[in-house]
Design goal:
Number of helices of chain A: 13
Number of helices of chain B: 10
Organism (chain B): Alkalibacillus haloalkaliphilus
GO molecular function, one term (chain B): ATP binding
CATH architecture of chain A: Orthogonal Bundle
Largest sheet of chain B: 6 strands, mixed
Number of domains of chain B: 1
Strand content of chain A: under 5%
Distance between the termini of chain B: 38 Å
Order of helices and strands of chain B: EEEHEEHEHHHEHEHEEHHH
Radius of gyration of chain A: 21 Å
Structural class of chain A: mainly alpha
Strand order of the largest sheet of chain B: 6-7-8-3-9-10
Structural class of chain B: alpha/beta
Number of strands of chain B: 10
Largest sheet of chain A: 2 strands, antiparallel
CATH topology of chain B: Rossmann fold
Pfam family, one (chain B): ABC_tran
Protein name (chain B): ABC transporter ATP-binding protein
Keywords (chain B): ATP-binding, Nucleotide-binding, Transport
CATH topology of chain A: ABC transporter involved in vitamin B12 uptake, BtuC
Order of helices and strands of chain A: HHHHHHEHHHEHHHH
CATH class of chain A: Mainly Alpha
Oligomer: heterodimer
Shape of chain A: globular
Distance between the termini of chain A: 28 Å
Strand order of the largest sheet of chain A: 1-2
């Protein structure tokens, strides 16, 4: 068990290393931007999966945390001077606001059945969208606003996109390992128990409310960090970050990649962003590619029907079945010898 | 002898139907009590009242002299009343081993540990494995609980209950749905618990003959009422009980 865990960790680190070298091979603007989008949405989708896949809580308003993060850092940096300390301040503001909102949403609804949480988050996200549209003096309304990010010292300034790429990648890797540790901790195991059978968890003597609220806060804060990275990479923010489509993207990425895994959302993010990019390019071949969402809807339906565990989940299941078969064979061999 | 669980006029009504009515009983510490009775007698409902899944319409429950009628399931489990379920109630999509490990983790009060302490973690796993050996499930440790057979799930239930290591064990028909070959092994597990004489066991059983030689005391429920309570010999000799098991209304058969 332990050995397998370690090899998987090595594989992840190797992939991270390869991704780190990538911009030195290919540093086209559009390519770096696409990769940054993948990383940002991977973080966002992983935070979503903490709720959906690990604890069994459905949220329809996850975009609000993303938006809170994006606006917190954008407003802070445009109001103050664009230094690193104001960036840090923006991050702190994002963490605090999203933490409080997630805490309140959790305390208010998680005692009830899970769909109340889905409905309340949906309503809250709608409220934040409304505020962002109306509070023009701060948010700039629908059009949003651009802001400057601090200048980097020396040569780095010339390769700013590469630096942002590496920073986003590093954030994703750190958050990935952080969440991996969380899900493998004793606390993470209780969360899975809650997903599986919450009443049974209670009759084992665990109080489930604190767990649900805690994971709601953790997930909200991580989603806000994804929003921070999103705003910084664009140097621009508008009300789209609060859109329901952002939540649905996270849902699709998680389900296509594999619910209840952390690699799944990353893979899902890569697939969604890459196909969005390349399918839109094919628009000149056939008009259907302009409406790539139609294609995606069909793929999504097929995935749900034939691979309900997503890509990573299906692979894990196959590997597990093979291992089981081998074990059965070993047992049979031994009993034959005896 | 010291009383560990005591009920006073314990009753619950669903609609107009009294599923359990006016059951007053003392359960002594470290004694093996069986609750028997025909289908629909209110045995499981009585258990649900003891373990806190249901709260009574009237009457009270005491545990070690303390009124626990209003206590939640969680509080009761933490105070030492553990139960198994008749309708299998496990975590389906995680491994058998993990099912038991979660119970051990609860007992050890490792609740909000975000950063795994590897050593204690391994101890839990070893202990869980030992418990699985006790209930003859060790070979299935790594498969998801959902793919166990019905009888195996019952064994898993028992392992999870043992893992909690509570003072009181409420066993709801532990052998129901098991194949005939498996029953003696599970009865053996229960017998071992009894022989250690440091636990209070209350066991629900549908078939009277199965628990006659295990039980110190027996109580018979019929239509929600406590029909009789006593040693197995007394219960066997009780005409009312026999009438109830043969069929018909026992009150009728005693008066005629």
């Amino acid at each position: 068990m332990m050995k397998r865990l370690q090899t998987s960790t090595w594989v992840y680190l190797l992939i991270a290393f390869v991704l780190m070298l990538l911009p030195f091979v290919k540093d086209d603007r559009w390519f770096l931007f696409l990769m940054i989008q993948i990383f940002v949405f991977a973080i966002f989708a992983m935070s979503y999966d903490l709720l959906l896949g690990y604890t069994g809580i459905v949220s329809f308003g996850h975009a609000m945390f993303f938006g809170i993060g994006a606006y917190s850092v954008a407003v802070t940096m445009s109001r103050l001077d664009s230094t690193f300390s104001s960036f840090l301040l923006g991050v702190v503001v994002a963490v605090i606001i999203s933490g409080i909102v997630a805490f309140l949403a959790g305390v208010l609804t998680l005692k009830l059945k899970s769909h109340y949480y889905a409905m309340l988050t949906l309503a809250l996200a709608g409220m934040f969208l409304y505020i962002a549209e109306r509070w023009r003096s701060v948010t700039g309304g629908n059009d949003g606003f651009t802001f400057r990010i601090p200048e980097l010292p020396g040569v780095l300034q010339d390769h700013r996109n590469v630096v942002i790429y590496l920073f986003t990648l590093l954030s994703m890797v750190l958050l990935f390992f952080g969440m991996k540790r969380l899900t493998e901790s004793p606390l993470g195991r209780v969360l899975v128990g809650i997903r599986e059978n919450d009443q049974r968890v209670e009759s084992l003597g665990f109080r489930i409310m604190p767990y649900k609220v805690l994971i709601s806060v953790v997930s909200g804060v991580i989603a806000a960090l994804a929003g921070v990275l999103y705003a910084v990479s664009l140097r621009f923010v508008n009300t789209q970050v609060f859109d329901i489509e952002v939540t649905l993207d996270a849902l699709l990425m998680t389900i296509i990649g594999g619910v209840g895994t952390l690699v799944g959302p990353i893979l899902g993010s890569a697939i969604m962003n890459l196909s969005h990019h390349f399918l839109s390019d094919l628009a000149s071949v056939h008009w259907i590619f302009q409406r790539w969402v139609i294609l995606f809807g069909i793929i999504f339906i097929l995935v749900v029907i034939f691979f309900p565990n997503g890509i990573v989940g299906t692979i894990q299941k196959k590997m597990h079945e093979r291992k089981m078969k081998q074990r059965v064979k070993q047992v049979e061999k031994q009993s034959a010898k005896n | 002898m010291e009383t560990i669980i005591k009920t006073e006029d314990l009753s619950i009504a669903f609609g107009g139907h009294w599923a359990v009515s006016d059951v007053s009983i003392d359960i002594k510490r470290n004694i093996f009590t069986s609750v028997i009775g025909p289908n629909g007698a209110g045995k499981t409902t009585f258990f649900n009242l003891l373990s806190g899944q249901l709260s009574p319409t009237k009457g009270r429950v005491f545990y070690k002299g303390e009124d626990i009628t209003k206590h939640s399931v969680i509080q009761r489990t933490r105070n030492g009343i553990g139960r198994s379920f008749q309708i299998t109630n496990v975590f389906p999509n995680i491994t058998v081993l993990e099912n038991v490990r979660l119970a051990i983790q609860s007992r050890e009060q490792v609740r909000f540990d975000l950063f795994r302490h590897f050593k204690s973690y391994r101890q839990f796993e070893e202990e869980a494995m030992n418990l699985l050996e006790t209930v003859l499930l060790a070979e299935k440790a790594e498969i998801p609980a959902a793919s166990l057979s019905h009888g195996e799930k019952r064994k898993l239930e028992i392992a999870m209950l043992l893992a909690l290591n509570t003072e009181v064990l409420l066993l709801d028909e532990p052998t129901a749905g098991m194949s005939l070959e498996e029953v003696p092994a599970i009865l053996n597990v229960i017998k071992n618990i009894k022989e250690q004489e440091d636990r209070t066991v209350v066991l629900i059983e549908h078939k009277m003959d199965m628990v006659l030689d295990l039980s110190d005391r027996m109580m018979v429920l019929f239509n929600g009422e406590l029909l009789a309570e006593g040693t197995p010999e007394e219960i066997m000799a009780n005409e009312t009980v026999q009438a109830a098991y043969i069929g018909g209304d026992p009150n009728d058969s005693t008066t005629t």
